[in-house]
Specification:
alpha+beta; five-stranded mixed beta sheet; about 65% helix
Length: about 400
């Protein structure tokens, strides 16, 4: 069990290729149209010299500022819920002044097709640093302002009003649509990358919980039986040395089994068998002078898949441990059978101590097992009434026939 590597989780480190693609697509497209489309107009000898010089200055400022700002925006970790506290105001100012100069000069000579491109570029670049709501407000305002400015010049000069108002507005909307669309793809990829990292971390935590639950099941049960047999051997050492020696041999065997099972859990291949756990319960309950009565349908024992037998085996082990640890039982009953497509295991005893409790007030082991059975489509309940304590588990016979259920059970 290892933590997911950081470079495979959140952040642009896991999106190197897509980051490179977005950078070149976004900045390349913006600079291409600025330099080669607007630049062609700036170099046109038919345009007045003052307009060409002013336009060139504005174009250079807009191109450099937009490239720097977009590069910084793409370099930001794609976390759309957080926005920079201090946008790069200096570069925004440089770019805005340059775009205003270029757009103003082009509008002054009534070039209705190109004047709005540079301002649209800077408005869009500024919008990339804003939250979605403020971004939409800025773009909508820019579309309206472009239409109004074009319309005012057209009315003053007697040019076509529809073309002068519609073209700049569409230009602003189009530039924003294309630029923000590419950036939206980058942000979505970032969110997916973060989700993948969180899923990997969650899988590691789930595996740790499963390991802790298995370790609890093994060590709790073995230590409880070892303590019981050790106590029994201590009482018998003078009265019946032979039986005391036999009990101590069982203690030695249980300690060895606990060590083996612990190693198996670490190596990830241990599986508890319901049959083995029922047989083990009969032995340890008898050793504790508890009258254990088993009602097992032999034909049903092998019909449950391996994963289901493992899961019900854990229930049997936990129920036995609870009898040894928390009860003063004189009699216990184990009933297992298949009915209506469900494997049903019921473990009861007559020596429950303490006031009646119900449901989720009991130990962590039963709660954990209840979650496992629920995940496999089954159910685990327990009921405490007067001296009686009953643990009942049910599991669909088909549960655990696939790897998913088995993994959850294990």
């Amino acid at each position: 069990m290892r933590d997911a590597p950081n470079d495979q989780g959140a952040g642009p480190a896991g999106l190197t290729g897509f980051h490179r693609y977005t950078w070149w697509s976004l900045i390349g497209t913006t600079e291409f149209f600025l330099v080669f489309l607007v630049g062609e107009w700036v170099l046109d000898e038919d345009v007045a010299a003052w307009a060409r010089i002013s336009g060139a200055v504005g174009l250079a400022a807009t191109a450099v500022a937009s490239a720097v700002l977009l590069s910084r925006r793409v370099a930001m970790a794609p976390a759309p819920d957080t926005w920079p506290d201090r946008p790069p105001v200096a570069w925004l100012t440089v770019g805005s002044v340059g775009a205003a100069l270029l757009g103003g000069v082009a509008l002054a000579v009534r070039n209705y097709e190109l004047w709005s491109y540079a301002p649209a570029t800077m408005v869009t670049v500024a919008a990339t640093f804003l939250s979605p709501r403020r971004r939409r407000e800025l773009i909508a305002g820019a579309v309206a302002v472009a239409a109004v400015l074009g319309g005012i010049v057209a009315l003053a000069s007697g040019d076509g009003l529809v073309h002068a108002t519609a073209f700049p507005a569409v230009m602003v909307a189009s530039v924003a649509w294309i630029t923000l669309g590419m950036l939206w793809g980058w942000d979505v990829a970032g969110r997916l990358n973060r989700a993948r990292g969180l899923a990997a971390e969650l899988a590691v935590k789930d595996e740790r919980l499963r390991f802790a639950a298995d370790l609890h099941d093994i060590q709790g049960h073995h230590l409880q039986v070892i303590a019981l047999k050790g106590e029994l051997a201590a009482r018998l050492v003078e009265a019946d040395p032979a039986r005391a020696a036999a009990e101590m041999k069982d203690v030695q065997r249980l300690a060895t089994d606990a060590l083996t099972d612990t190693r198996a859990v670490v190596q990830g291949y241990r599986r508890t068998s319901l049959d083995a756990e029922i047989a083990n319960a009969a032995r340890v309950l008898a050793a504790a002078d508890i009258d254990a009565r088993l009602h097992i349908e032999p034909a049903d024992a092998d019909r449950l898949p391996t994963a289901g037998r493992h899961l019900l085996g854990l229930v049997m082990r936990e129920a036995t441990t609870n009898v040894l640890r928390h009860s003063q039982a004189r009699r216990a009953e184990v009933d297992y059978r298949l009915t209506n497509g469900f494997a049903r295991l019921r473990v009861s005893n007559d020596g429950a101590a303490g006031p009646p409790r119900s449901g989720m007030d009991t130990g962590t082991g039963l709660r954990t097992l209840a979650e496992r059975l629920e995940a496999a489509g089954g159910e685990l309940t327990w009921e405490h009434e007067e001296d009686s304590f009953v643990v009942a588990a049910s599991l669909p016979v088909k549960a655990g026939t696939d790897g998913h259920s088995e993994g959850e059970a294990g």
